[in-house]
């Protein structure tokens, strides 16, 4: 198998991708790692239509990588640069001019990364997860609505810029990760947020590959006690970890399969509450960091990702 892995390879950013690369190399596969950090350090060249490249396929030069689409069996797509990501390290103050320049550069890297991923898919190279079908479901209002229509139980949700009506509600961002407690206190006029009714029950973290549950653990606090309800944005919950005492039942398997069929997330993590009336899905996260789950639960998640890449590549060659 000839595998192209595209994403961030910094251990601080996402050690999961490097673990997948290492697992694939250990099996004897040819692996090309396209590190988006090279979008900053260069050299970068992408030729969507180049008469000098073989079969006129798109040629990508990214740092030390020089490859054309015809040389790739399957692509694993990790987190790509966001047009709205933070452009400076924490604590570094920039002038407005410098901030604007960095924001424009980030937007250009975002456009290039997504163009490459979408073009490879259009040329017939299978991309996991699909850059054309998966990203819309990163937006939580659409994701929750689509999954609810498909029969998955999700929390009662309002998208609003108003304060939660009572302490029984939790405020979270529409896009991206959880808002920290300090920023979650006050609503900002004109900025929509997800305001969800708190669901009580044991919280699970579930790793899925190709719609199949490969690892599941209960979220616990620093003292090892179960975290009850959604822990994100809560002042009473600090450090969290996972434990491996979870039995995967049919309900969880069906939920994982439905998320895959609706959202097209090849590799994802589910945040699930085991409530009094069954499972409730808080959200599904595409391109999650899963190496911590692999270590905590003792499950070869990276190997499961390579398994999925092998399966898709074999189907493509038929």
Overall shape: it is: globular
- Helix and strand content put the structural class at alpha+beta
- What number is the mean pLDDT? 81
The strands making up the biggest β-sheet line up spatially as 13-12-11-14-15
Percent in helix: 25-40%
CATH topology of the largest domain: D-amino Acid Aminotransferase, Chain A, domain 1
**Which regions contain 5 or more consecutive residues with pLDDT less than 50?**
177-185, 233-239
End-to-end gap: 13 Å
The biggest beta sheet reads: 5 strands, antiparallel
Give the amount of beta strand, in percent: 25-35%
**Count of DSSP E strands?**
15
The tally of helices reads: 8
CATH level-4 homologous superfamily of the largest domain: ATP-grasp fold, B domain
Our Rg estimate from Cα atoms comes to 20 Å
Question: How many domains would you count in the coordinates?
Answer: 2
Query: H/E order of the elements?
Result: EHEHEEEEHEHEEHEEEEHEEHH
């Amino acid at each position: 198998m000839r595998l192209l892995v595209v994403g961030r390879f910094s251990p601080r950013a996402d050690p999961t991708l490097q673990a997948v690369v290492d697992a694939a190399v250990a099996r004897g596969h040819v692996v090309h790692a396209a590190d988006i950090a090279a979008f900053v350090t260069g050299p970068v060249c992408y030729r969507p239509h180049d008469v000098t490249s073989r079969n006129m396929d798109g040629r990508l030069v990214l740092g030390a990588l020089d490859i054309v689409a015809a040389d790739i069996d399957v692509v694993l797509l990790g987190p790509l640069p966001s047009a709205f990501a933070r452009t400076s390290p924490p604590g570094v103050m920039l002038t407005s001019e410098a901030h604007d320049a960095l924001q424009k550069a980030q937007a250009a890297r975002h456009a290039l990364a997504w163009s490459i991923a979408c073009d490879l898919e259009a040329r017939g190279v299978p991309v996991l997860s699909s850059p054309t079908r998966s990203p819309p479901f990163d937006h939580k209002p659409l994701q929750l609505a689509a999954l609810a229509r498909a029969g998955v139980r999700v929390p009662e949700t309002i998208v609003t810029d108003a304060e939660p009506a009572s302490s029984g509600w939790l405020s979270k961002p529409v896009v991206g990760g959880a808002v920290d407690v300090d920023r979650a206190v006050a609503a900002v006029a004109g900025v929509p947020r997800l305001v969800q009714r708190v669901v009580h029950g044991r919280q699970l973290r579930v790793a899925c590959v190709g719609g199949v549950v490969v690892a599941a653990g209960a979220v616990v606090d620093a003292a090892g006690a179960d975290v009850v309800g959604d822990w994100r944005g809560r002042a009473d919950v600090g450090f969290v970890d996972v434990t491996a005492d979870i039995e995967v039942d049919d309900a969880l398997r069906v939920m994982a399969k439905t998320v895959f069929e609706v959202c097209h997330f090849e590799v994802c993590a589910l945040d699930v509450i085991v409530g009094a009336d069954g499972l409730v899905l808080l959200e599904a996260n595409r391109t999650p960091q899963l190496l911590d789950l692999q270590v905590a639960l003792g499950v070869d998640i990276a190997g499961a990702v390579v398994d999925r890449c092998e399966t898709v590549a074999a189907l493509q060659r038929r």
